[in-house]
Design brief:
With 97 residues, the protein is mostly helical. It has five helices and no strands.
Length: 97
C-alpha cells in the first residue's frame, strides 16, 4: 500500500512541475506590452469596420437603382411576354438607291 501511495505522490509532483514549467514559459506571452498591442489591433479593426459601414451608407445609389425605386411595383412586374415583345430587335427600313 505504501508503494502505491509513493507512486501517486511522484506522479502528482511531476504533474505540478510540468504545470509550473509551462506557466513559466507562457509568462512572457502574457505581458502588458502584448496586451496593449492586441487592444490596439482590436480598436483598429473596429474603427475600420465602422468606417466601411458609414461609407456604404453614404455611397450614392446608381441612376438605375434610383429609377427602379421611383417606378411603381406593378410596372416593374410586367409579364414575361411583354418584356420579350419590348426587347425584340427593331426592324429598320433601308431605302433602295
Amino acid at each position: 500500500m505504501d508503494a502505491i501511495a509513493e507512486q501517486i505522490d511522484r506522479q502528482v509532483k511531476s504533474g505540478t512541475e510540468l504545470m509550473s514549467n509551462a506557466r513559466a514559459k507562457l509568462a512572457p506571452v502574457d505581458s502588458p506590452r502584448n496586451r496593449s498591442i492586441a487592444a490596439g489591433l482590436m480598436l483598429a479593426a473596429i474603427a475600420a469596420g465602422a468606417a466601411l459601414i458609414l461609407l456604404s451608407r453614404r455611397r450614392r445609389q446608381t441612376l438605375a437603382g434610383r429609377i427602379s425605386k421611383a417606378v411603381p411595383g406593378p410596372v416593374r412586374d410586367f409579364p414575361d411576354e411583354l418584356v420579350t415583345q419590348l426587347k425584340r430587335p427593331i426592324e429598320r427600313v433601308v431605302r433602295a438607291l
